[in-house]
Amino acid sequence: MLGFSQGFTANYFCRFCRGHRQILQKQVTQDENLLRTKENYEDDLEQNDLSLTGIREPTVLNNLDKFHVIENVIPDVMHDFLEGIIPLEMFLVLSRLVEKEMITLEELNSRISCFGYGFIEQKNRPSPIKHTSILNPTKASGQTASQMMCSAPLLPLMIGDQIEDDCDEWALYLLLIDIFKIVMSPSLSLSSTYVLKALITDINYFYNYFQIAI
Fold first, then answer.
1. What would the mean pLDDT of 101-118 be, rounded to a whole number?
2. Its domain of life (predicted)?
């Protein structure tokens, strides 16, 4: 509908910027020079090459009054966060914790099952984690967005006592939860946006190291 490339395997998959996939996988801070603008959007349309621009076709939505696909950009917190980076990082970390024998899959599932979620969140309690999710943490988690929203911030309460103080993977996860709390806040102050930017920079540096370590 928006006319951009579809899927994260495209060379230029981002609708916010013109960064190549290989650059974005390692980039830790936003590069203002790569952001899409109405001007470079028109240039990319004229180039008419999806593999070089990330734009598949012009969108009819630009014909709407006071709307432009470059200026009216809103992230999708459910797909980008609750079904994206949250389960990806959670299961990468859990896989390493099991590998390091800080917790077994059986103990993990027992704690998930016995945890007191409260009346409101009871219906969103996470499903038991399968052995395949630990072996292949980058695959589908088997959890819904509602389950991830419930379990992600509660995981430190469930298993935090099992984790060694100097565990890098756990430190990475705690950074993610700090970001999670800000992103899911009903309102933000200006100072919170600066904190969020710093946390995102930290976690991107950390995540690049973590990927190499794997």
1. 95
2. Eukaryota
